[in-house]
Amino acid sequence: xxxxxxxxxxWIRPLVLLLYALLLVAVLPLCIWELQKDKxxxxxxxxxxxxxxxxxxxxxxxxxxxQHMVHYTQPELQKPIIRILWMVPIYSLDSFLALRxxxxxxxxxxxxxxxxxxxIYNFLVFLLNFLSNQYPSLVLMLEVQQQQPHLPPxxxxxxxxxxxxxxxxxKLGVLQYTVVRPVTTVIxxxxxxxxxxxxxNFSFRTAWSYLVIINNISQLFAMYCLVLLYxxxxxELAPIRPVGKFLCVKLVVFVSFWQAVLIAxxxxxxxxxxxxxxxxxxxxxxxxxxxxxxxxxEMFLAAIAHHYTFTYKPYVQEAExxxxxxxxxxxxxxxxxxxxxxxxxxxxxxxLTVVMMNFLTSMGLxxxxxxxxxxxxxxxxxxxxxxxxLGLSPLGSGQGLQGFVAGGLFIYL
Length: 413
Known about the structure:
Radius of gyration: 27 Å
Distance between the termini: 75 Å
Helix content: 55-70%
Number of strands: 2
Largest sheet: 2 strands, antiparallel
Low-confidence stretches: 367-413
CATH class of the largest domain: Mainly Alpha
CATH architecture of the largest domain: Up-down Bundle
Shape: globular
Number of domains: 2
Order of helices and strands: HHHHHHHHHHHHHEEHH
């Protein structure tokens, strides 16, 4: 007989406190033993202090996550919130492991950077799910909104048409970062293993500088699309207070990225040099360790901010009883992401199809009218036989077009 949500709420608090107390009792003596075993150097002091902040951070974050799982009354909103809240403990633990075991830093940082893109995507999902629930005709509502001009530095570009076009391009702008970031992270890992990555070295002879530029452009454009969507729908989004939530996500992502660039710059100008590597093997290891140490401290502040910004209290209400593991299983359901990616790929495919047809029109092969086309007569012949060979109808709405594009351009003789 599965336990009800009401029963779960009664025993989850003492269980969490008990598990955390047991973990503290087990880990604290190990940390003290490690410090006593080795000569206490700068590196040991750094990971010990970082560990203290990690132990302060994780309970705050996990408590907010568990409370959302207990009061899981609006899945379409709380699922992306839970995924966002996981950012803090993942960042914190990842940075601590990288600081404690420098040889694992490149692998730990790979996981952290991939999750960063996932968080930005889920914030967009949170906004769109709220809008879809409140305004079923979201596209129609956007169409009657005042035209939203581009923001600097894109203010000279023509504005995106309000409605489906704006919504699609904002989603695509965020989604591209969720693809670019993992790809560049994997490339960075491969370059590191091949010895051509050279992190924190501002030189275009190595891969690091190129990947930083690509990641920065992709990240800035994703954030730009979020800001553009908010400006177009700020009044409709007001009930969920999106500014504080956006700042929490933006600061964690941007601060971690730009402080890594700043530390690399300090290495470049010699402020961090080989003269003072403390217990690290190289100046690059010092830069990576400093970044991880700062993140461990920052995540404690981020955990407090997330606790109040992404609070569970608006979702506390009488809910239907169900299995206590339903909300936990729902957290690992990625079908929504798969469906969203599929939809965006389909939209991009349709857009590329229209571009191809416009190109063919300019070549004189097709005449387009509201997504309809016809094959003109060539050398005085009727197009029937040619159209049959191409799998197209003389006048239609695009059936067989994909087969035509995939098969290549047919030359009429």
